[in-house]
TrEMBL record:
<dbReference type="Pfam" id="PF09393">
    <property type="entry name" value="DUF2001"/>
</dbReference>
<protein>
    <submittedName>
        <fullName>Phage-like element PBSX protein</fullName>
    </submittedName>
</protein>
<dbReference type="InterPro" id="IPR018989">
    <property type="entry name" value="DUF2001"/>
</dbReference>
<dbReference type="InterPro" id="IPR038628">
    <property type="entry name" value="XkdM-like_sf"/>
</dbReference>
């Protein structure tokens, strides 16, 4: 099957939900999981081996400043659902990020003559793939 460019996801159709509330002002979200690995060097083997370790989830979301929600939220835990949608793609994908907590809270970011944006870096403790995309 050859690649159909219409099936590639276009980010404009995606959604970010914070504790179930659609963040209509959001314009960017990124989340990754990294796994630490312990190195194992054993006699008689010229390859370094690796043992799985702890996972670390982190990310950031940003958007246009329209409310004081994130200042009020403070460092209390929240849940994010990232919904990747595009009517031309093969379905949609939703990922739930569990036990999120802001790393920092932006209190002010003002430049005269510019629209104010807000960015929130965060960590999370677990994720769940709610809907997966499969080629049809």
């Amino acid at each position: 099957m050859s690649f159909n460019p219409d099936r590639a996801f276009y980010g404009s159709f995606s959604k970010l939900l914070l504790d179930g509330e659609w963040q209509t002002n959001a314009n960017s979200v990124e989340a990754t999981v990294e796994m630490s690995k312990g190195e194992l060097n054993v006699m008689g083997d010229d390859w370094t081996r690796y043992k799985k370790g702890q996972k670390n989830g982190s990310g950031t979301f940003s958007g246009y400043k329209v409310t004081s929600k994130m200042i009020e939220q403070g460092f209390e835990r929240f849940e994010l659902i990232i919904s990747l949608e595009d009517p031309e793609a093969y379905g949609h994908e939703r990922v739930r990020l569990k036990n999120c907590m802001a790393d920092s809270i932006q209190l002010a970011n003002v430049t005269s003559g510019e629209i104010i944006e807000e960015e929130t870096p965060f960590t999370f403790e677990g994720y769940e793939l709610l809907d997966a995309v499969t080629a049809q």
